[in-house]
């Protein structure tokens, strides 16, 4: 059970990291681009990545709490 919860936490943190990286790369792309369309599309994708990060931050405390609780059971 501990490994399963640790894996779920790792997946959630990976999702957060992917969203941060995607936002960063898209912002760099927009800064280098002269296309208004590309800027618009990139902006929409950035919005979605921002929403993904917010969802992760919403789920994180509960998942981390469960992992810590399971860790106590497992290692004590």
The number of helices is: 2
Helix content: over 70%
**Structural class assignment:** mainly alpha
Termini separation: 14 Å
- Helix and strand element order: HH
The shape is rod-shaped
Beta-strand percentage? under 5%
Structural Rg: 17 Å
The main pleated sheet reads as:
none
Average predicted local confidence, pLDDT: 93
What ranges have pLDDT less than 50 throughout 5 or more consecutive residues?
Answer: none
Q: Report the count of strand segments.
A: 0
Gist of the model:
By secondary structure, the protein is mainly α. The protein has helices spanning 2-32, 36-75. The protein is 93% helix and 0% strand.
Q: What does it look like?
A:
- The chain has helices spanning 2-32, 36-75.
- The protein is rod-shaped and about 60 Å long.
- The chain has two helices and no strands.
- By secondary structure, it is mainly alpha-helical.
- The two termini are 14 Å apart.
How are the SSEs placed, and which strands pair?
Elements: H1 2-32, H2 36-75
Helix pairs in contact: 1-2
Task: Sum up the structure in keywords.
single chain; mainly alpha; 76 residues
